Amino acid sequence: MRRLTWGNAYLLIVFIILYTPIVYLLVYSFNSGGTMHHFQGFTLEWYKEVFQDTRLLMIVLNTLIVALLSALISTVLGVIGALAIYYVKSRQVKNTLLTFNNVLIVSPDVIIGASFLILFTLAGIKLGFVSVLLSHIAFSVPIVVLMVLPKLQEMSPTWIDAARDLGANEWHILTKVILPFITPGIFAGFFMALTYSLDDFAVTFFVTGNGFSTLSVEIYSRARQGISLSINALSTLLFLLTIFLVAGYYWISQKGSRLYGMWKK
Amino acid sequence: MNSVRNVYLFPYVVWIVLCVVAPIALIVYDSFFDIEGHWTLENYEKFFTPVYLKMTLSSFWYAFLITLFSLLIAYPTAYLLTKTKHKQLWLLMIILPTWVNLLLKVYAFLGIFGTFGLANAVLNAIGVGTKQLLFTDFSFVFVSVYIFIPFMVLPIFNALEELNPSLVDAARDLGASAWTTFRRVVFPLTLDGVKAGCQAVFIPALSLFMITRLIAGNRVITLGTAIEEHFLVTQDWGMGATIAVFLIMIMAFVVVLTGNRR
Question: Residue B34, Cβ neighbours under 10 Å: how many?
């Protein structure tokens, strides 16, 4: 029993350390003192500042557009990729494709960023919205593939045979058999791609050029200039959005597993 | 059947060629050019001078320290988590901070480690007195470990969950002490999780440049910081690409070393 209490104390300390910075940010976003020490009084001034900063709001909008578009496109590409790997018969080809797929997942962001900077410069793509969008699509595709592929492998191949025997063509097999079954995986992939895109800083920082900025890049350049409590206010708002997204993600995955359970019976 | 397979395979292979193969090939290609665009091996010669070798070594040293401390903190955490009642909920609580933008967490430490921040308030309270914490090696390692702990906990937690508890009981029944059981049974069986965690921490620790920039000032230079500097500040893409080539090689080495799972 005594050991267990020590264990709980240890866990408590880990949790306190994990959450201190986040709570610290949130609490000081209400500080009228303007610094991240000595809490002087409660104010919503910093939130007002965030909502009056049209440049910042444009950047938030840009970030959301890039995230949604890249998540959508990479989900389509990722599903195609997962299907491609699924349909390949040879084990060797399968493993080669998976290895290539995983390169971008283990690659450090600086490598991805630097190599895409070279690629875009060479291809003559102007640095800005398009280059950021393309790079986000590129690094989200393998994540979607990894989320969708296990679902495909769970599916019994006899279903496809049955559908074909009953006269379904390839398009019907895809839309009536495969896609409904792997929907939870597709949603999980979409959400992962969305969060990766929203969270990305390093890759964007390399390919963003002048003029176009996402939230992470903006936070970085503001943080380099020192402390400004409007960043704190912004982080509180983002934290709420994150909780919302996590809740959505879990709701969908819960729903997915329940649907899957129904199918299994 | 064959025609269907090709329909999916073609766009995917195009993606692989454009987004995986081409960028890496271009990095290697660029590493053979100097700043004026002449073909040269100079970048590689330069990499083997003491300045760059020292930087590589110190980058390794920091990444090693960060991985080590993350492991030392994360393993007991993961172990204790598997013993709690609502372990999935607690695990979610460990993962939740990773969904907060990394830069915001790093930014929070600018406040906490500041001269009048929380850390110094605590140090004052226990009688140590005010210390310069920001822009030191300590703060860099601390913040990095803070960032990476969840990535270390998750694979170890999964490995511990897969561990068959009757093996632990058997070891205890056969007279092994708690420590021996851990050393000879639990740890070897969760080694894959540890390896996966080390891989997830070590490679980013070599290359994250925003933590060093914001927290350590210019005191700590990692491979990532050097690449960023060459590409975006001094515009010497050739040298940056050369460092990137070495980072890719190190990455491949680490992946092979910590790989062979399944």
Answer: 16
